[in-house]
Structure formats: C-alpha cells, structure tokens
Amino acid sequence: MNQLKEALDTLKDTGVRITPQRHAILEFLISSMSHPTADEIYKALEGKFPNMSVATVYNNLRVFREVGLVKELTYGDSSSRFDFVTTQHYHVICEKCGKIVDFHYPGLDEVEHLAAHVTGFKVSTHRMEIYGTCPECSGKEVH
Amino acid sequence: MNQLKEALDTLKDTGVRITPQRHAILEFLISSMSHPTADEIYKALEGKFPNMSVATVYNNLRVFREVGLVKELTYGDSSSRFDFVTTQHYHVICEKCGKIVDFHYPGLDEVEHLAAHVTGFKVSTHRMEIYGTCPECSGKEVH
DNA sequence: AAAATAAATTATAACAATTATAATATAAGA
DNA sequence: TCTTATATTATAATTGTTATAATTTATTTT
Ligand SMILES: [Mn+2]
Ligand SMILES: [Mn+2]
Ligand SMILES: [Zn+2]
Ligand SMILES: [Zn+2]
Fold it and tell me: Which of A11, B49, B100, B117 keeps 20 to 30 A from B123, CA to CA?
C-alpha cells in the first residue's frame, strides 16, 4: 500500500542509510508518477535542498537501482530516465514530444527462450519499447 | 548481391556525394559484419585516411542513417554502434563482454497493434533486445 | 550521552561521446 | 575546365555522468 514506507524498509533491510535527500528523491519518484531524469529530480528538489549536489542525485539513483527500487531507462545520447519499480511493464514513447507511457503486456518469455536456444546465451533479461506519436501530438498535425 | 554497389546507388539516388571517406566507411561496415562504434571505424580507417576527422565518421554515419543504409544501436552512456542494414533482425547482447549477436525473429506486430490500441499512439516502430551471457563468457566461469 | 567510525554529501574537476564552427578542399554538373 | 554546393578537417564547445577529496552526518560503540 504505502510505497514510500516499503521503499524505506527495503533500504533499511539492505543496510542503506536513510538520509533526507534519499527520502525526498524517493518521495518525488513515487509521487511524480512519471519517468524523470536525474536533472529533473535535482531541479524539483532544489527548493527543499538548495545545497544538494547533482552528484547526490546520481549516486542515490544508482543505489536505488542496485537495490531494485528503480529501473534506469537509457536512451542514446540523452539523459537516462528513472522509473520507480512497481510491476513489470513496457513503455510506449512519443517520438515528437518524448512522452513515456506505461504499457502492460506479458513478458516475452517465448522470445527469450528461442534466443537462448538459437544463440547459446544464458538469457537474463530483455528490453522492449514501442515508438510512435502520441494522441496529443497526432492531433496537432496539419490535415 | 553486391551490397556496396547497392549502397552507393542509394547515395547517388538521394543526392549524397560519394567521397573516398564515405566509400571506405561503407566498405568497412559491410565487410566487418559486426556492429562497430564510430571510433572503431575511425581507428580502422586511419591507416588509409591518416587525416580523416572523427567528425567525418560521425557526420557520415548520420547521413547513412538518414538514407536508411545503417541502423544506429544506442546504449545508455556508452558509444552508439552501427549496423549495416540488410534484413530486419534483433540483437542478443552479452552483459559480460559486450558482444552483439544477430537474432532473427518475426517482428512483434501483435505487440505494436495492442500498444496502439491501448494507448492511442500511432505506432511507427519498436526496439527489442535480449541480454545475457554468451557461451564464451559462460565457459570462463568458475564451477 | 559522548566518542568513534563508517557512510553520505558537497563542490569541483575530469571524462567521454558527440556536435558545432569556420576555414579549406573537393565532387559533380554546366 | 569552371563553378558552386557540399564535404572534410581541425578544433572548440557541449552534455551527461563519474571521480575526487574535504566536510558533514548517521549509526555503532563505549
Ligand atoms: Mn514506467
Ligand atoms: Mn545486427
Ligand atoms: Zn507526443
Ligand atoms: Zn561474452
């Protein structure tokens, strides 16, 4: 139920200290319901933490990733985005405005198995994203 | 049959000048049968073109991408890799050594359609990769 | 509760991949 | 061959991220 409390328990269980900065970053990730970049988090919290270093944001996002609280979504040259992990899901991304929408779909187990069989890899995970144009951006088009 | 000739024709048809550097980069991409980074291409050709700028490699890879000759494979913070496009395929990537292996599998049309239906996006494409450990890296493990 | 110590934060510098800039060189058509 | 738009080069700039070292803070030990 209380996602923040659960996240803090995870930190405690894994021996990660709970600092005000970590608390605030987690709080923001959970409440924002989006997929912010490190810099967006940094800027969102600079009112509350005027002296927080951007390195702290990066460091803590890495810590959260390592204990499984967040997933890092990486894209070519641009900034990583961070997703507070609840359940397995994929993403649909707008090529016009960059919006990221959650997309629930069963995991592609069959594909993983075939890949393992064909290539001899020990498969651990996969990545899948859908790209296109969101309804808002489609609406703006000239007809 | 002759992939290089076809590629050069594509350049001619789209009004892109054929320079020795472009010729050499294409030749390397086709013959290497791998997924090199811009820097790997740059280093591979520095014998033949001691004065070639790394910017030339980047510029031309972008040109090739724009006319559909190559696909850019992007990964978080590390360098993009470039794939001379022949047929649609996916990639299996070793998390230990970084090796990239082609994996032929029918396109995930069903997933694209469902995503379009559920999110209202106009879907244009998708990305899918399998991660794991390659046979060589698995063999090296201590038992 | 105070002291000790291990970990986290900050400020800043460094880094690596990529792109921008401006001068020079060249491919391709007239 | 001449012309001109385009490409290349050398270099600087930019951006996202990580490393470093000093300072601060959370937790453990006394
Ligand atoms: Mn998500
Ligand atoms: Mn490939
Ligand atoms: Zn959009
Ligand atoms: Zn490997």
Answer: B100
